[in-house]
Write a structure and sequence with these properties.
It is built from 13 helices and no strands. With 283 residues, it is mainly alpha-helical. Helix 4 packs antiparallel against helix 5 and helix 6 packs across helix 7. The longest helix is centred in the first third of the chain and has 28 residues. It is globular and about 50 Å long. The relative contact order is 0.23. Pfam families: EamA (PF00892).
């Protein structure tokens, strides 16, 4: 797979990720149940993909690889839980814009933990993202649902940044489908003990939405993201996936009439503009 193919995969993943917040609104159950159902359907879809390809689930990993898969599964669990909390409290636009900060977190993680050189463009990313978040914040008050939702969204972005960096640096040599399947399986195992009593509350419509969320917005998008990371730098893939708020805000506006404010649009423009600035091809 060439770089152009990897970029295409990352863009399709961004489109599918953008629909996640919409399902977070449509599904009327707890965030733990949404996350569990999403991961469970993703596991089912990825397992069927393995069968279609004539392959089987891999078990023989080194102790280090098992540790990386467990760690990435934990990061994925935290990312989804905090994101759906953000959607429930602050709405789709606020949650996805908070999540869109994760490229800035990737830059900071690479700089602080791995001593990677950070370019001037990437420092601009951090600055413009910060200004964008200030504009997006409905009010600087912890009594505001919008502010609390945004903080949960930012925490979700930080967890996702940890996931991207872990996948990029720790899963080389492991097939992308196997990685995605095991990471989603770990999410199921982590949450199952806390959701057993909630299965009786599940409706047919919620189950249908969870199936769409799990198979397309999770299994397929997760696979495409991990596959693209085999070619793309973690920061570049992250910047493409950060287009999610564009799709999410437009979909929420169309479906729910959630019209964004001018300040929110200005903040979103700064955040997404910074992402494009950094993702331009370097000389």
């Amino acid at each position: 797979m060439g770089r152009r193919g990897a970029l295409g995969m990352a863009h399709i993943a961004a489109l599918l990720f953008g629909l996640t917040g919409i399902f977070g609104v449509l599904i009327t159950t707890s965030v733990e149940m949404i996350t569990l159902g999403r991961a469970a359907f993703a596991v089912l879809g990825l397992w069927l993909l393995l069968l279609w390809q004539g392959r089987s689930l891999e078990w023989q990993f080194t102790l280090k690889e098992w540790g990386i898969l467990l760690l990435s599964g934990i990061f994925l669990t935290i990312h989804w839980l905090t994101f759906f909390i953000a959607v429930k409290i602050g709405g789709v636009a606020v949650a996805t814009l908070g999540f869109a900060t994760f490229p800035a977190f990737i830059t900071l993680i690479d700089y602080l933990l791995f001593k990677e050189q950070v370019t001037l463009r990437e420092w601009w990313l951090l600055l413009l993202t910060t200004i964008g978040l200030i504009l997006v914040t409905p009010s600087f008050s912890f009594a505001s649902d919008g502010t609390i939702g945004l903080l949960w969204g930012i925490l979700s972005g930080f967890a996702f940044a940890l996931l991207v960096v872990t996948n990029k640096r720790g899963t080389k040599g492991i097939d992308a489908v196997q990685i995605a399947l095991w990471q989603n399986g770990i999410v199921v195992l982590l949450l199952l003990p806390f959701t057993l009593m909630q299965f009786q509350e599940m409706t047919l419509l919620n189950g249908f939405y969870l199936a769409l969320l799990g198979i397309f917005c999770t299994g397929v998008s997760h696979y495409l993201l991990v596959k693209s990371l085999a070619v793309l730098e973690a920061r570049i893939a992250g910047m493409i996936i950060a287009l999610e708020p564009v799709y999410a805000i437009l979909a929420a506006w169309w479906l729910f009439g959630s019209q964004p404010t001018l300040a929110m649009l200005a903040g979103a423009t700064l955040i997404i503009g910074a992402i494009f600035l950094v993702s331009q091809k370097k000389n």
